[in-house]
Amino acid sequence: MKGRKALPNIIGILLAIVIMAGGIAIPINLLNEQEQRIIGKSYNATADSYDLVSMLPPPRQTSPANEHSAETTTPAPTPRPLPTTGELISGMSVDELYVHLYAWSMNGISAYREPNSGELNMEQAVAYVKAVMQGIVDMGAFSADAWGSYHFIEAQLLSNTVPAAANETSLIIDGITVPVSMGRWIVSFENETDAGKITVNCDAITGTIYQLRIVDDMSLLQVPPDGLLNLLAAYFKLPDDGWSYTENQSPGSIMSERFELLFQTENSNSYTFSLNIKIDN
Q1: Whole-angstrom Cα distance, residue 61 to residue 91?
Q2: Of the spans 4-18, 58-72, 79-93, 208-222, which averages the highest pLDDT?
Q3: How far is the C-alpha of 179 from the C-alpha of 103, rounded, in Å?
Q4: Three-state SS across 112-172?
Q5: Could you write out the three-class secondary structure of 165-199?
Q6: pTM, two decimal places
Q7: Are the CB atoms for 186 and 212 separated by under 8 Å?
Q8: Beta strands per DSSP E along 68-116
Q9: What is the pLDDT of residues 107-161, one digit of tens each?
Q10: Separation of alpha carbons 221 and 135, rounded Å
Q11: Which of 10, 133, 192, 263 is 20 to 30 A from residue 29's alpha carbon, by CA?
């Protein structure tokens, strides 16, 4: 009798153990499943994020494309041979001079760069400038001793790149071809004795000077400013543009049909000679 009563108890105990084990296993399985779902969602979200990045457009270039194309594909006109000592000839006709000045005055992007094919390198630009300076000395307008105390310190090529059609590297103005990216060498000399400085701007293709700026050295100029203006007028061939030595001129300036050659002072020790396109009032 006692054995019959014990059997249900044993069965009950076994059922309780089974229920308890199942109760523990089911939550664990649920947790594992939930964990896999969470991991899966996290992975999918990360993958989706990378997919979005890959679909974004690449960063925009910060440099204008036409500037880079002009720097690398500018036509290669042949510069004239290096000047001889004391040469005082611009090497450009007044029509070429006008077109180069006009192209330089156009709205564009200014930047310093390396010389393009067909442009003077730094050594050649310095040689042109030195030849012009020595030519002015030989004509008696500059002091030989004062110029002899100067030495070259630096040169930079400044460009003005004007808007143009895609892959276009040159412009035609009045029948004359000029590069889209016009260049000018800025060549500087220094006199350590009295801190004098000379800065000359010249054409990157022909070496023709456009501006001569002298700071803190009045001993260099040996003639009145108008005397040097007359000398530079001959250098630029302004008689071919309607200017005559015999005509009256205003002090500090020379006018031809299209050009204005100026002498300007900043203070008692600094002055500039420059050639510009004449602006009609």
Answers
A1: 39
A2: 208-222
A3: 9
A4: ECCCCCCCCCHHHHHHHHHHHHHHHHHCCCECHHHHHCCEEEEEEEEEEECCCCCCCCEEE
A5: CCCCCEEEECCEEEECEEEEEEEEEEECCCCEEEE
A6: 0.69
A7: no
A8: 109-112
A9: 999 999 999 999 999 999 999 999 999 999 999 999 999 999 999 999 999 999 9
A10: 13
A11: 10
Judged by DSSP in three states, 58 sits in coil
> What six digits make up the tokens of 247?
């005509």
Tokens linked to 77: 């006109």
- Contact present, 113 and 71 (Cβ < 8 Å): yes
CB-count exposure of residue 211 (10 Å: 0-12, 13-18, 19+): middle
**Contact 27/34 with Cβ under 8 angstroms?**
no
**How do strand 181-191 and strand 253-255 relate by DSSP bridges?**
unpaired
Terminal Cα-to-Cα distance of the chain (whole angstroms): 136
The pLDDT tens digits for 156-187 are 999 999 988 888 899 999 999 999 999 999 99
